[in-house]
Amino acid sequence: MREDLREELARRVQVDQQVRRSWLAHATAPLGNPARRDGVAQAADHAEREALADRMRAVDENNTAWLRMVIAEQGWPGEKLVGPVGASHAWLIAQHADRDPTFQAECLELLRAALVAGDASTGQLAYLTDRVLCARGEPQIYGTQFWTGPDGYDSAEL
How far, in Å, CA of 1 to CA of 11, rounded? Predict the structure, then answer.
């Protein structure tokens, strides 16, 4: 097992999840404190949300480039190489590679082969399959992809 690779995957996912939790906390919070609902406070809240979104995009792009390099050198970082948790972390980085749909689709094929070899989980394959299909504008198969709309959570087309 590649402990160094497993540890780097864990570190990268920790950063990924930290920035996503911060963004989600701001994205779902009401704009501004009720005592400060003036335009300046709302603009500051909006600016902070945008800064977190930019940070999330930067983390995703950095992780995508890094995973691309790992795959070129090692192949898909499956359970045999990095353990079940490390493999889950590799999947999550691929899942968040939305700005590179070609690479994300390549990861899906590698993950599919890893599953056949007993080196990945069916849940990971389901999520990444739906993510790639949604990115292509096609209906999802497993119903894993949701987003927040004006009326709460909504799923992508099945």
Answer: 17
Block mean pLDDT (10 aa), the chain, length 158: 97 97 82 54 78 96 98 97 98 98 98 97 97 94 78 56
Nearest Cα neighbor of 26 from 52, 6, 56, 8 is 52
What DSSP assignment string belongs to the chain?
--HHHHHHHHHHHHHHHHHHHHHHHHHHSPSS-GGG-SHHHHHHHHHHHHHHHHHHHHHHHHHHHHHHHHHHHHSS--HHHHHHHHHHHHHHHHHT-TT-HHHHHHHHHHHHHHHHTT-S-HHHHHHHHHHHHHHTTPPPSS---EEEETTEEEEPP-
Taking Cα atoms as reference points, which of 127, 36, 117 lies closest to residue 88? 127
